[in-house]
């Protein structure tokens, strides 16, 4: 072998090695790009707790209560608040807000419940404008409007949550325990 041929052979071998490394790097980049596209197309999946369907009824003195806001405040660590509003039949369905997304239902766990229906008090001249707490008329007893004073708790379980445990029968003369008026 003449000296020039040996250098040509080594250069050829290095060239093949470089091409192999380049091809391997290109294949790695291609695999990464395909995986990234797969995540973008399918989404990364939901993170955090799963919500369960919750539906119930609110009655005031035995009559369905329309336009009542129902709030579930978690009693368990890691729970998420949930809320709903009753329709004309007093029926509500809970919704949870998580990361800016609305999710139908509530996370399984124990909750303290609040129920609120209010409107601005009518002022002289027929104007209805609430500018402070004294300008609001509560259409359910005020004790129900705070989860700490309502005396109502509910447990959301995995699966569909409907039935008597989610039927809240309010009384016009309700006074929280320990409160006198």
Oligomer: single chain
User: CATH superfamily name of the largest domain?
Assistant: Immunoglobulins
Low-confidence stretches: 22-43
Shape: elongated
The profile of the biggest β sheet is: 6 strands, antiparallel
Question: Distance N terminus to C terminus?
Answer: 112 Å
Q: Report the sheet-strand fraction.
A: 25-35%
C-alpha-based Rg, rounded: 32 Å
Instruction: Examine the coordinates and then state which fold CATH places here, giving the name of the CATH topology of the largest domain.
Output: Immunoglobulin-like
Number of strands: 14
The CATH architecture classification of the largest domain is: Sandwich
DSSP helix count? 1
CATH class of the largest domain: Mainly Beta
Indicate the mean pLDDT. 79
Overall number of domains: 2
Q: Tell me the strand order in the biggest sheet.
A: 8-7-5-4-10-13
The secondary-structure class comes to: alpha+beta
Q: How helix-rich are the residues, as a percent range?
A: 10-25%
Can you put this structure into words, describing what you see?
The structure is a single chain. By secondary structure, the chain is an alpha+beta fold. It has two domains: 1-45; 51-170, Immunoglobulin-like (Sandwich). Helices cover 22% and strands 30% of the residues. It contains one helix and 14 strands, in the order αββββββββββββββ. The chain has a six-stranded antiparallel sheet, with no helix packed on it. Strands 2, 3, 6 and 14 form a four-stranded mixed sheet that branches. A two-stranded antiparallel ribbon has the order 1-9. A hairpin with a 2-residue loop joins β2 (55-60) and β3 (63-64).
């Amino acid at each position: 072998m003449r000296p020039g041929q040996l250098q040509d052979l080594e250069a050829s071998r290095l060239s093949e090695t470089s091409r192999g490394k380049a091809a391997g790097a290109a294949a790695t980049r291609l695999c990464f790009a395909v995986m990234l596209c797969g995540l973008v197309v399918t989404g990364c999946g939901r993170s955090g707790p799963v919500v369960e369907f919750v539906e119930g009824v609110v009655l005031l003195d035995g009559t369905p209560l329309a336009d009542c806001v129902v709030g579930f405040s978690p009693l368990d660590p890691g729970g998420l608040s949930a809320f709903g509003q009753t329709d004309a039949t007093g029926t509500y369905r809970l919704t949870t807000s998580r990361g800016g997304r609305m999710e139908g239902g509530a996370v399984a766990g124990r909750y303290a419940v609040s129920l609120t229906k209010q409107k601005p008090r009518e002022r002289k001249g027929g104007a209805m404008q609430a500018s402070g707490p004294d300008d609001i008329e509560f259409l359910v007893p005020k004790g129900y409007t705070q989860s700490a004073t309502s005396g109502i708790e509910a447990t959301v379980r995995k699966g569909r949550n409907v039935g008597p445990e989610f039927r809240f029968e309010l009384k016009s003369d309700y006074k929280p325990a320990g409160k006198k008026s």
